[in-house]
Every structure is written in structure tokens, then in C-alpha cells.
Amino acid sequence: MAIQRGDIYFVNLNPAKGREQAGKRPVLILSINAINKRPLVVTVVVGTNGANITKNYPTNVRVSPADSGLPLETVFLCFQIRSLDAKRFPAKPAGQLSDATLAQVESAVRYSLGL
Fold it and tell me: What confidence tens digit (pLDDT) does each residue in 53-95 have?
């Protein structure tokens, strides 16, 4: 199955430096499918366990397990955007966001980038 915009995968983000998210994390596919199906990089927003983020910020989107298909509440850190090689991704996604929640992430990304 091809990597699709709105899918969520668990990928290993190591090596990381400084304040970058590290280790195996949920990442949300943000890049368009025309890019995702080429042998280029895939642009993602990094997620973290919702229990780690106690306060809501305009740069983050909190997603329930029912809305993501993931086992835990996840906060997507829309200021943590990375481009990853497609080889980092497992064969199947762990979850997927609804169009409405993906729109919230898009809005938070635009806010984070001043767009």
C-alpha cells in the first residue's frame, strides 16, 4: 500500500539532535500524494503521547484514539515538521485522520509557519 496524506505511521526518528523528537513516534503524513508516490522524501508532522502535553497550544492538535485509530491520545506538534525517506515507513499505517482533523492540523501548520 502506498503512503497517503492523512495516514499515521510509527517511525524511528533517530538520529535526532537537541530538542527534536526522537525514537519511535507517530507521524502524520502531510505531503501530497503526488509527492508521496515518488521516490522522494515524505513530509510529516511528529506526534507525541497526549499525556506528555498537559496544555493546549495553537501549534498543536490533540487527537483522541477514536479519531486516529492509535491506542493513545496523540498530540501532533505542528511546529515539528520533518521530511523523511520513504524507507523509514513500515508497510502499513497505524491509523488515519479524518478530513476534519487533518484540516485542523493544516491550520496549525500554517500558524506555526506564519502562512
Answer: 989 999 999 999 999 999 999 999 999 999 999 889 999 999 9
**Residue 86: which residues within 8 A CB-CB, separation 6 or more?**
3, 36, 39, 40, 41, 42
Preceding peptide of 93 cis, ω within 30°: no
Grid cell locating 27: 507521524
Q: Which of 74, 73, 81 is CA-nearest to residue 112?
A: 81
Domains of the chain, each with CATH number or no CATH: 7-113 (2.30.30.110)
Nearest to 43 by CA among 34, 32, 51, 54: 32
Give the whole-angstrom CA distance, residue 22 versus residue 42: 17
DSSP 88: G
**CA–CA separation, 90 and 46 (whole Å):** 16
Residue with cell 491506542: 71
Structure pTM? Answer: 0.91
Residue 32: which of 2, 60, 72, 76 has the closest Cα? 2
Residue 53 in contact with residue 62, Cβ under 8 Å? yes
